[in-house]
Amino acid sequence: IAGITQxxxxxxxxxxxxxxxRCTQDMRHNAMYWYRQDLGLGxxxxxxxxxxxxxxxxxxxxGYSVSRANTDDFPLTLASAVPSQTSVYFCASSDRxxxxxxxxxxxxxxxSVL
Amino acid sequence: xxxxxxxxxxxSMQEGKNYTIYCNYSTTSDRLYWYRQDPGKSxxSLFVLLSNGAVKQEGRLMASxxxxxRLSTLxxxxxxxxxxxxxxxxxxxxxYKYIFGTGTRLKVLA
Lengths: 114, 110
Fold this sequence. Notes:
- Chain A is an all-beta fold.
- Chain A is built from no helices and eleven strands.
- The relative contact order of chain A is 0.33.
- Chain B is built from no helices and eleven strands.
- In chain B, a hairpin with a 5-residue loop joins strand 4 and strand 5.
- By secondary structure, chain B is mainly β.
C-alpha cells in the first residue's frame, strides 16, 4: 500500500543522545514535512523540503536538522536531545502537481526524552 | 503574528445534535484544510476549500470558507459516536508551509 512509513514507532531516549527519525514515502511527492504534535499546541512545522536537495525551516526548527538526498527519504535528526523535545512527530508529504496539495501523514513517532 | 485559532477546543455533545466548529486565521491563505485525527492515530484529510464561499459536504460534516472574514466552519449534523475525534483546520500562508490550528477534540455521547 502506497504511503508514508515512519520509524521507529516509539522511542525512549536519554537526554544528550543523538537520534534520527526516519521517514520514507513511495508516492513520489515532491514536498515533505516534519511536524511535532503537543497537547494544546496542535501541530507545529519543524522543517520542510519542497524538492530533493532543498530544505527550509518551519515554526520550531531549533534543535533539529533534516536532509533530503532523494525524493523518497526525509530523515529528522536531533543532534543532542532535550526533554522539551518529548513529543509525537509526524512526517507528511504533498504533491503540488495535483493542485489540491493536501497533506498525507505517516503514522507518527512517539519520542520521550528523559 | 500568524495565528490559526479553533473554537471550541473541547466539545462534548449528545448523539443527534448539531454543532459548529470555528476556525479563524490571521493572514491570507490560498486555501483551507480540515483534517481528522482519531486517538493515537495519524491525520486524515477531510476537506480542501479553495475559494471564498466554498462549501464541501461529506456525510454529516459540512465545511465552508469565508476568506474575507478569514473564517472557516465545520458543521456537524445529527452527530453520531463515530464522529468522535480531534479536528484540525490548516492554512497555507506561504509556499510549502501549512499552519495548523490547535485542534478541537470532539466527543459524541450515546
